[in-house]
Amino acid sequence: MNGNPVYHWIGPAVSTALMLPVPVALLSGWIPASMRKRQAGLRLRAYGFLCCYALVLLNSIPRIADASYETVMTCMILGFGFIAAAAVLFLLAARKDALARTAGPVASGTG
To answer: What does the alpha-carbon distance between residue 53 and residue 57 come to, in Å, rounded to a whole number?
Structure first.
């Protein structure tokens, strides 16, 4: 039912190489130059990327293990939950950035 497991190993391998370093770097404090203006929601974005990574794992690991149809379908349904969580996290990050941008810089108390 699950086909050739080599094809299902490609997803986690590529996503581990491309998707996982970004949220780990963001959570460790590194900020890319393109995101320095949007620092308010960086942690939320990192958690959103991790939810997308969890989706890849939930869809591929049961197939690699040649799990039953019910297990594969259950993991796919859980994957939809992770995608919904990622969407909410990305929207919250955008909102937090917008609120930080409209608040502007805080004036110093000296003077």
So the answer is: 7
Please name the amino acid found at residue 32.
P
Nearest CA-CA partner of 86 in 40, 55, 41, 57:
55
The residue type found at 9 is W
Is residue 100 within 8 Å of residue 40, measured between CB atoms?
yes
Sign of CA dihedral 10, 13, 16, 17: negative
- Tokens for 7, please give them: 């094809």
Q: Are 26 and 43 in contact (CB under 8 A)?
A: yes
CA distances from 55 to 60, 61, 77, 96, 97 (A): 9, 10, 10, 25, 25
- Residue 102, helix vs strand vs coil: helix
Residue 51: other Cβ atoms inside 10 A: 21
9-68: per-residue pLDDT in tens?
998 999 999 999 989 998 998 887 877 777 788 899 999 999 999 999 999 999 999 889
